Amino acid sequence: MTVFVVRYCAAPLAGRCANKHKPWIETEYQGIVMENDNTVLLNPPLFALDKDAPLHYAGEICGFRVHNGPSGSGTVQFEAVVLDRSTGEGLVRSKEPLDCENQREHSFTIQAYDCGEGPDGANSKKSHKATVHVRVNDVNEFSPVFVERRYEASVPEGRLFDRIVRVEALDADCSPQYSQICFYDIITPNVPFAIDNDGNIKNTEPLDSKHQRVHTFWVTAFDCGKNRAQADAQVVVTVKPSCKPGWMGWTKRVEYTPGSGSIPLFPGLHLETCEETVWNIQATVELQTGHIGKGCDRDSYSDRSVRRLCGAVRGEVDLLPPPSPAANWTSALPTLPSSDSSLVFSFNGSNHVAVVPDPVVSALSGDHFTLQLWMRRGGGNIQPATAPTRGNRKEEETIVCSTVRNDDSFSHYSLSVHGCRLSLFYWPDVAAARPVKFLWKLEQVCDSEWHHLSLSVQFPSVTLYVDGVTFDPALIHDNGAIPNPAPRQRMFIGACWEKQKEKTFKYVGSYHGLLSGVTVRPGSVEPHSVVECLYACREGLDFGDLETLGSGMKVHVNPSQSVLVLEGDDIESFNRAVQQVTYRNSLRFATPGVRPLKLTTSLRCFNEESCLSLKQLEGYLVVLQPDAPQISLSGVGPHLARPAPEFEGPRGVSLFPELRIVCSLSHAVNTAAQGMEALMSDAVAHTLDGCEVQPLGEELNPEREELLVDMDVVRERGLEIINTTAYIAITGAESISVYEDVLRSVRYRLAKGSARFERRFRLSCSEMNGRYTSNELTLEVNFLHSLDNLYHPSHLLASQQQFLHPSHHAGELSGHTLPNPHRNSVVPGAATVIIMVCVGFLVVMVILGVFRIRSIHRRGEGARGGSKDGSGQWDDSALTIIVNPMETYESRMGISADMEGEGEEEEVAESPEDASDDQRIIVKKEGRDGAARRY
Fold first, then answer.
1. Domains and CATH numbers, the chain
2. Over the stretch 395-417, which tens digit does the pLDDT of each residue have?
3. How far apart are CA 396 and CA 417, in angstroms?
4. What is the C-alpha separation between 462 and 457, in angstroms, rounded?
5. Is the pLDDT of residue 59 over 60?
6. pTM
7. Which of 739, 781, 774, 730 is nearest to 756 (CA)?
8. Is the separation of the CB atoms in 514 and 333 below 8 Å?
9. Pick from 476, 513, 770, 905: most CB atoms within 10 A?
């Protein structure tokens, strides 16, 4: 049956219905479409309304038109169709299949059109544009896929791990429901492993490599739509034998041969983490050298010598010199032994104070100066200072407190420590009463270790170097109630002063600790290069080649080169870096001994709870005994003979004019011919630090004799000299050539008439604070006397009166010259007597010789006959012989030899005709065995 719906126009016009209104739709629609469908479900449903209804045509909806989205790009993938013209119901559908994985969201606009005023659609009207958002719903069309088809891992045996290996699968679906992997599963039965929903595989029991070395099993994955992976993944776990984490290849003892430069401390060391994943490694290497001097092995010279070797400008004043008659203000201070040549003074924080004399202080005027010192606060119980509270303020400890005169004014400064702070108070003019305070907060002040401080003041600029490193101060203008220092020149070391009454004061702020090498140099400040040289250690830790340092690696060495820190994130790079840590010692004659060595390691892992903890390793470095240098003194004969008047001249006589000093090192070499080792000596450039000339026997008599040195040479080289009656000492680090020049200028001078027959001296030199010494060169000085100057012993004259005329007793014997105007009246008579005695003595000796030979012959015959003859021995107990007074010296020089042996023939060395008259005296000598001897 056919139903006809007839609509009539409410107001017909010219046979047509009037189209007065536009269609109306919603302004926005939300739609959903499945990947396997093309119909879009809209919310709200698509209906177009027209107020012209129920007019035919004018109140009906003839169509919908779809436009591009807001971006205005791309082809419209959707269309809208009218399901019912009278009700305006429409349907949105896709023109082609949609892919959620390609595009999940779509947006476009839609309009509705009515049918107009007739079948031809004349005067049709359209609605406003409405926005349609369409979301493509995913269909679980994809299955999970593993990233790797095979997973491998290795673990040490005997441990449980939270994660051995992690497997991962991906799903290509676009929605979270179907693209996520909900769980993994181990499909191989009876394996000691488990897997969580994130793919992490762990062992459920400790693994044993002996029982099963390799475990192989399969795992699969499921997405949240319960789709299983297309292909399962294989997992292979290799069980390694037990692994002990820590440093491998550690050598507890390391030997160092002096002169070998730098050596690696850990050439075979490497870190074993047993497959534990770490992301940060830090190792600290510590070389303990505190027992060597002031923290490390430096040149064993005095502070003054080191300053000269470092090129410091001369003119420094030693405020704590070794106690001596000239510097007695340090005699009351206790001293401590030190392995180097410096003198360490101890201050107890109460009554140990050094008051520098005014003549020394007067040379320190001016507002430009450099103060240098070695400091060690208290002992091990010194703690960093806490914030002072009211009524409980710890007193500052003063190191140096000084007031000096500057032309017509006075300036004052004091260097103090308070807790872990170092402060310098400076008054450019005490009359101004406006001090300036420079403050430094330093850990070095309170760590109870030795530190070198250099304070360069060029007011208003102040520069502080601590262990060669610069520190900037916090400048404070102090306008508080600080009493003005008294305008009086004075300097204290170890405390400051406070005025009590008229002309009285007391010590305040006493220092507690050790000080050494406290010097002040007025004038220009010390250059930084000199300060670094003074502190520079000759031994320490170093790194081999920074260019080979791997990426991410960091190296830090402290100024004293006793602590080296390595930091990195890669184990292989870290192992290579550790093997390049070296020990260096640039001293040719390094101080032998043991240096404790420590290695501390800290690791940071992703899983901090199970991260490895490595214990501290301890060892030691042994510096072997270096080859001792042989310092040889030569070029000076054992005897020096000069006429006595030369010693009495204004310059005296040079003792060592031909002195030569040679330093050599002996070392063993293999000789290929004999296959043996031989010692060879190589001359080396060397530096001496002291030489000493000492008279042997009794000390020098200052009224009669003295040793002179060319002071111009000594001052030019900056050497120090001590000249006493017991010795003359020249000290200071200088080259061998300089010491040769100085020692060649040493002269021996006598007062008029003070010449003796001989005087002996001993010369020796040393190096490195007396550690190496030279041979002892002994020199015997002989004085050649003339006849006028030779004193004639009275006992000789008394014993020889039968040979000399009584009128000759007033004459003096001499050695070479006869300035006496009465020489012709004395000497001829004496010569005649001497000639007669010599002839007679020769005859007697011949007779006695013949008699002695016969006696020996007779005694030999008696022995063969069994008889003994004791009456034929020679009795010469009362012989008188002729002696040359110069023969004492000549016999030592090898000119004549003593006639030795009992019962042997005696010969006359020279005839009376060959000897001059003024070179002989007559001496009566009675031997205890009756033998005639020559003296």
1. 24-137 (2.60.40.60), 145-240 (2.60.40.60), 246-292+537-623 (2.60.40), 303-379+395-535 (2.60.120.200), 629-663+685-784 (2.60.40)
2. 789 999 988 887 777 888 889 99
3. 6
4. 5
5. yes
6. 0.53
7. 781
8. no
9. 513
